[in-house]
Every structure is written in structure tokens, then in C-alpha cells.
Amino acid sequence: MSGRVDGQGIYDGMPELAYHSDPAPKPSLSRSIAKLLIEASPAHAYAQHPRLGGAAPTGPASGDGTMDLGSAVHAMFLEGQDKVAVIPFPSYQTNAAKELRDDALREGKIPLKSKDYAYALNVVEALEEFRLKTGYFKDGKAEQTVVWDEGDHWARARIDWLPDDPAAPLLDLKTTGGLATVAGWGRNCFQFGADIQAAMYPRGVEFVRGEAPDDMLFVVIETAPPFAIRTFGLDPVAIDVGRAKAAAARAAWVQCMQAQQWPGYPLTPDWIMPPPWVVRQWEEAKIGGIGRVTEDSAFIEKMIRLQNWGG
Questions:
Q1: Is the pTM of this model over 0.90?
Q2: Average pLDDT over residues 24-49
Q3: What domains, with CATH codes, occur in the chain?
Q4: Euclidean distance between CA atoms 299 and 305, whole angstroms
């Protein structure tokens, strides 16, 4: 399946490029565009949207080794497809390596150096063991495109794993080069909009299926030994924040689409409050003596003389 769809529904087998090109009957709101609307500006959202001011996607590879490794794992584990072109070089410093990489990109393949491909195979093996132990990623379908009509606008989502049971939680697979810990991944997940995603995706599935899934779970696997896996859900406070963000994004999207105006940053000044660590650092500096420079000019003269000012 490719191209545009006629109405809301769950679409199986839609190519990734078709989804990212926006297959909805009208330009639709996605998680990434919603995040831009509320964290940057409507102008940023317009500039990135493939059917407004943005360019259409060109392929599965991003050019970022870490992201491409994640894309390869998705394709191999979730879809059973090997979209990888193995580049038998340790780096892309030689012309031969660059040529193989560029050929892979032209063919719509994900170029991975030999070491990264070995890591991808190990990650997939660990995920298969996880599937057997937990039952996750068993009864359902991978990479499902959900398009729904909110009444005043269209929205879309691409769900890594949509369970056959409408009440079961949606699953999202993430790879990380760091640690799959609450402190590590928990801090980073909000940077890509996990809270917005956990609000939008179940909402879209409920629109189409008529039954709300039991929220959304993020399965995070490390891409380095021991290829550890951890499953995360967002607590009720994070979900409430995500729903509020998604609602704000929907309101902004509808207003901008109706007016066909996409304003940028406001023209009035914003005032930046210092974070607590800046205040604490200054207080510690005052105790250490550096803060006395405005009160005692002899102090700064002494520091210059000792060549100890500035490190």
C-alpha cells in the first residue's frame, strides 16, 4: 500500500516513506509536528510538515549511525525484513567505503559498518528472547499506520506494535546507546516527546477501534553488551501532562490550518530565569571568594598577579 488513504482506519503494509509523506486525506497532525507546535512555533511545524512547507522524506537511513542502527533493528525484528547494506569497512574515510554507503542510500537501504551490523544482529537476538519470555510482540501486527478524523482536523500515528487485543497496551520499541534506566532513558524520553506520543497514539486507536488500549509501553534495548532490555510506562502525572500538550497542539493546529497563518516566535522579549544550579554555583563562588571582586578591587588585582584568574 502507498499513497493517500480515503478515510480513517488502520493501514497494514504502508511503506515508511508513504507514512512520513502524510497519507491522510488532508494534511494531518503527527506527534513530531505536535511537539514542534508547542515547543517551538507554528512556523517550525509548517516548515517541517511534508505537505506544507517541508520536503518529502527520501529514505530509511538518516546518516546518523546510532539512528540507523535503530532503524535496522526495527526492520529486522518487527517486520522480518533485512533492509541493511553491510559496509565492510571500519569507517567511511576511504572512497571505497563512501561509494558503498552512497550506493546503499540510493537503493533505499540502511548502510551499517560491519561492527554495527553485528551489534544489530545481537540486538535482534536479545529481542527474540524477550518476546519468548514476556509475550510482547507476539499477538498483533508491526508498523501499523493509524489515520483518524478528529472532526476539525486529521491526525496520524505509526505504531511499532499494535496488539490484536484492543485492550492491550500499545508497544513502542526504542534502542539506546546509553543505559535503559529510569535516570538515563527516563530523562531522554521527554526530549523526543514520549508524553505526547503516549497521549496521541492511544487516542487515535480509540477513534478507529472504538475501544481505548491500556495506555502505551516503551520497550528500550541497549545497543551494547549485554543488550539489556527494560520496559517503561509513563505515570499518571506524565500522561496528564502529555494530554495537555497534545490538546494544546490540536488547538494550535486547527487555528493555523483554518487561518492559513503560521506565526513564528513572538516579537516581545522573554525573560530567562536562572536555573537553580546557576544560583547555587554563584553562591558557592561567593563563599570561595570570587564573588568579592565587585566589593574589593584588590582581590582581582591579586588574582591577575598570581595568574590564577580564569583557570
A1: no
A2: 97
A3: 9-259 (3.90.320.10), 276-305 (no CATH)
A4: 10
